[in-house]
Design a protein that fits this description.
CATH architecture of the largest domain: 2-Layer Sandwich
Oligomer: single chain
Number of helices: 8
Structural class: alpha+beta
Order of helices and strands: HHHEEHEEHEEHEEHEEH
Length: 246
């Protein structure tokens, strides 16, 4: 491969990474702004804002960006009015998909998502929530505690389960207990990398062929590229050998 081609490929990847990073920062900023509008600019008295700031920091969002998002939400002149909307449907491989969005125009968001589902051969608007359980989810870096210590601390804080993986301590709890569990663990272990309400699959859809896995990942990427979409959750269970090929 020529040096020019190598440079072009590197720049294309760099451009894609920068674009993805900008998109993530934009979504974090929108969540922070909405949190300020609904609960005030003081994270100490606004749990949603505190959570939004934590999640923004976990994405390495610069401090200046966070402060600008807070300031925007505090300005009375800002007339943007976002609402939380959840969409459901099926994607490639009949995988159940939940799409969480923050939008100021449902008449824009729903048709855009419907078009993406249709383009990918999916089904938009079907109820899929019966495949998931709503939970509180926290994630701490491995360095803060041993697996045994984290298990004990989390259960004492009111968590339901703790899993220590190769990359993090993952804690789950009841959605209504998330704030209390987070606060208790913060006092002992510091700020978590992630703290959010999440959806945990209770029924998984196995993906055992490469083509379907590629189609699904491409579809999820397309969904995430929509500015109104905050998160995409699936119940896909991709086989280990397929993951290795991906």
């Amino acid at each position: 491969m020529s040096g020019h081609s190598q440079f072009k490929n590197i720049m294309n990847r760099k451009g894609a990474q920068d674009k993805a990073r900008a998109r993530v920062f934009s979504k974090c900023a929108r969540e922070i702004t909405v949190a300020v509008k609904t609960g005030g600019a003081d994270p100490n008295s606004n749990p949603r804002l505190r959570l939004a700031i934590q999640n923004a920091r976990s994405e390495n969002m610069p401090k200046d960006n966070i402060e600008r998002a807070i300031a925007k939400g505090s300005q009375s002149a800002d007339t943007s009015n976002y609402e939380e909307v959840r969409y459901e449907g099926y994607g490639p491989g009949h995988v159940a998909i939940i799409v969480e969005a923050l939008t100021d125009n449902r008449a824009r968001t729903a048709p855009n998502l419907r078009a993406l589902f249709t383009k990918r051969g999916g089904s938009f608007g079907d109820t899929v929530l019966f495949n998931f359980e709503k939970i509180g989810y926290l994630e701490f870096p491995l360095a803060v505690a041993t697996a045994d210590a984290m298990f004990e601390e989390a259960l004492n804080a009111g968590a339901d389960d703790v899993q220590t993986t190769e990359s993090a301590h993952e804690i789950t709890c009841k959605p209504e207990d998330l704030g209390a569990v987070r606060d208790a663990l913060e006092q002992k272990l510091g700020t978590p990398n992630v703290a959010r309400i999440d959806w945990k699959p209770t029924v998984e859809t196995p993906i055992t062929d490469l083509e379907t896995a590629q189609k699904l990942m491409s579809f999820v990427e397309d969904l995430n590229e929509d500015d109104d979409v905050q998160r995409v959750i699936t119940n896909a269970d991709i086989a280990e050998d397929i993951l290795a090929q991906l």
